Structure formats: structure tokens, C-alpha cells
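Morning F.,

Quick status update on the modeling queue. The single chain you submitted on Monday has been processed. Sequence for confirmation:
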Amino acid sequence: MDKYWIALSSIEELSSSFIQRLYNYFGNIEKAYNANDLSCIDGLSIKKSEKFLRLRDKTDPDKTIQELLKRGVKYLTFEDENYPYMLKNINNPPSVLYYKGDLFDCNLDRTLAVVGSRRATSYAKDALAKIISELNGTDICIVSGLASGIDTTAHVTALDNNLKTIGVIASGFDYTYPASNKELYKRIEDGNGAVVSEYYPTFEPLKFRFPQRNRIVSGLSYGTLVAEASLKSGALITANLTLEQGRELMCIPGLITNPNTEGIYKLLKNGAALVTCADDVLETLDWEVKLEQQNLFNLPELSENEQRIYEALKIEDKCVDELQAFTRLSIDDLLTYLTTMELKGIIKQVDGDRYRKI
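C-alpha cells below.
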């Protein structure tokens, strides 16, 4: 029976909703695949019926599943008993879920989606990393879209803190997008979670597939955390899908001067939960998870001047001129201290000549 799900899913012109429509009518995927008369399905046009029959007749179910297995791609069909419960209950669930890695090593009862801007600010990425790192060592699974920016920060921080993570991609497994995340794909697949897709391996990462992918990111999850989002963004689309799916929506507040936070404050005004720490996430989702109190960073002994520099950076990043004005050190002495503190791992240089405490 699986081969008929795979065969239908391998036809690019057929949407998941169309496949579900056939399946729901016939009640059996083999019968749906082999049907030659679709005129009995209410609302289905003759043109769509003829198109389906034409495409179906060009497809070989045995060959499509062989090609899939040859690539080492695993799958779950919609009627598989192991198909994720949360995803099965959304509007228009994927007819087939393709994956690499170990999907069932992830706790699918503790899934948190994270979405945000591809061009995220350092502030947003640091704030998100702080919150996810506070979940260190728990059984919570982070779900995101494996895009650049916030998605990458979410996956990498999860992995660095012994959390499982699921990456939902907008193409088949013949493609890696963005190419810069090739090693991240591999890291997730090699025992740290799973990369999943609703697309047969040969499907390209076309633009329209990214918004479609978003319903799976939120659909796999009990709640969605938005780290940064403009008023017109994929993150805001996912936020709206989260509400449509009856899941919890949370937002990390950002700088009001940043256009990428306009969507955040719109969501907060409309009732999204405000999140500044991991406890806020747990409270919103009503999860009882014991967070380990960890001393993540022991500050090394600082000289008096190093302490002044560190104090200057406690609230926000500063450039060399601002640090000099605050500490009243000579430029030569200041640069020496800054270099020493970088080597100690206390501060780091960001955005040219600006410095940030670690």
C-alpha cells in the first residue's frame, strides 16, 4: 500500500490536499490510485480529473519507492500508525512525511517550534540562544525550518545544549538549502534528531514551497516561539498558522526601533505570550520540566581596568570610542585590555569595532 502513497506524492502537480481528497473518498489508497472515474467526487472538475489520470498513467509506483529507498530516505504515510499525532490533526496534513535521521528518538510530546527572520539581528539570535540554552539537557525537541538566521540559531543552540531538533525543509532530499547549512543537516541526521520534508526527493526548493513548509513546522509542535518577524514575513505566516491549528503562540520582545520587530509587537498586542526566559515557555505550554541550575560561565579574575570595561558592556555593546569615554583609558591601554579579555573569552568583537560581553 505504501507505494501508492509514494507514487501520488512523487507527482509534483498533485497537492497534498488533492491526495487526501482522493483517499478520503475511496477510503483506500490503492483504490484511489487506480480509480478511472472521478466524476462521483463532488466539486472535482473534469479538467482536474483528466489531469490526474494523465499524470498517474505516467507514474510507476514500484519505481518511485525503489528510487526513494535507494537514496536512504525513510518515510511515513498518512495512514501509518506512527505518523505524528499533532501533525495528523492539522488542516491539510502531508500525505507522506519523508525523513532522515531518527525522528522517533525525538520526544514528539515536547515539541517547540522556533521561527524568525533570515536576516536576524545579533540581539535576537543572542536572546533566542539564551532561552534555548536554559532548556539544556531536557527532553524538549526544537522544531524549525533549517533556513539561515533564526532557524539556524535555534537548531545549533539546541544541539549545543543536548536537545533533539527537527528541521523541516522546503524541498526534497536531493537538495540542501541553504548550501551553507550542509554540515548542520548532517549533524542533525547523525543522531541528533531528524530532517523532514513532505516533498519527494527530486522536488526543488521553489519559492512557493516555503510557506507550505511552515504549516508543518507549527503542526509538529505544541507551541511556536517567534524570535523576530516583520509585518510581512514567513514567521508571521507561521504565527497565524499556529493560532489556526489551536497551538500556543509566544514571542521574544525586541528593539522597538527594529522593523523586524513590528510583527512581534502586533502579535503581543493580540494576545501572544511574552517570553524572556525558558520558564515563560514552560508556563505557557503547561509543561512540568525540571531545569537544572547551571553555572554556565565562571568569570575569570579581572584587573581593575578590565572590570571597568566589563561593567561598561553589561547592558549593551559599545564601540572603542564609547569604551574609552567610559573607562578614561588611553587608546593603547584600552586596545591591549580588549585583546587580553578576548583571549580570556570574556568579551568578543562584533560589527566592526563594537564589543560585547560573553
